[in-house]
Amino acid sequence: DTGSLNLVNFYTWKAEDSSVSVPCNKIISDPGVKKRTSKRHATKHKFSCLDCDYETFVKANLIVHTCMHTGEETFACSECNYTAARKCQLNIHMQRHTGYKPFACSVCDYKANQKAHLNTHMRTHTGNKPFACPECDYKAFQKSNLIVHMRANHDVKSFACSECDYKTSQNRLLIEHIRIHTGHKPFECSLCNYKAARSSGLTEHMLTHNDNKPFECSQCNYKASRKTGITIHMLTHNDNKPFECSECNYKTNRKGDLKIHLQKHTGDKPFKCSECNYEASRKGDLNSHMRKHTGDKPFKCSECEYKTARICTLKRHMLRHCK
């Protein structure tokens, strides 16, 4: 069954005309596609990325890959904010605005703007499920459903970082991870010089500019701008500390705090500065350290013009205004 998959096809595909194992990260079930891919991998010329070890036999693939490092997307839609790394992707997107759907189903009224979508739709009439899971009896009408199934049920992490051992089941998470290596921070604060690699990081930072703290502790005067902040704070009022260190008497009510504490015994400092020899056991400590190199001082006093790189320093400064 050409639609069936095995684990070799799921992760890597070996070119028939070459002894080199090629990490395609593709599920190749069509013999014609395999033949074309074999010729492509049998060629001697490779296009190499200047920022990492990525190599490809297709120049267009290198262009798309480079966008992962730079965050650049070259083709912009004139109707909305959509951007794409390939012109063909933009052409397909434009059909959403024009409503052009040239591919019509012969059984029902369904129409599609891509032939592949029509082919997938036709399987709902024929009952054909060509994409079979190699681990269980699951079968799917389309490849994307099988990929989702594999990631959800068999812990398949097909997106791997070329710089370290990081793997993930989502391409979006890999792109965010790669920014750790490249230092690319596309999300910028409109009120200060702060930049973040993730949109969630910018969202959290913007709260430092917001004096509104609607979440109040029922047992003390503590206030927080986020619900998660008050949830974490409430643990300080809880005497139950189920997480215990096996090396000393340390106890905590947060599993994450125990992991950080254990690094004191192991000496493990996985977060390394790209500018100097500094190493940290916590990512937050590394982020604070990096501001020494960037000069970024995102924490501002609401009473005067004082700025600082660390929030704890701002809290100590604010005590001066309370006297």
TrEMBL record:
Any Pfam family the entry gives: zf-H2C2_5
Organism: Hirondellea gigas
SMART domains in UniProt: ZnF_C2H2 (SM00355)
Family: Belongs to the hunchback C2H2-type zinc-finger protein family.
Gene Ontology CC terms: chromosome; nucleus
Keywords on record: DNA-binding, Metal-binding, Nucleus, Repeat, Zinc, Zinc-finger
Domain named C2H2-type: residues: 47-74, 75-102, 103-130, 131-154, 159-186, 187-214, 215-242, 243-270, 271-298, 299-323
Location(s), subcellular: Nucleus
Protein's UniProt keywords contain Zinc: yes
Protein name per the record: Zinc finger protein 845-like
GO MF assignments: sequence-specific DNA binding; zinc ion binding
SUPFAM superfamilies recorded: beta-beta-alpha zinc fingers
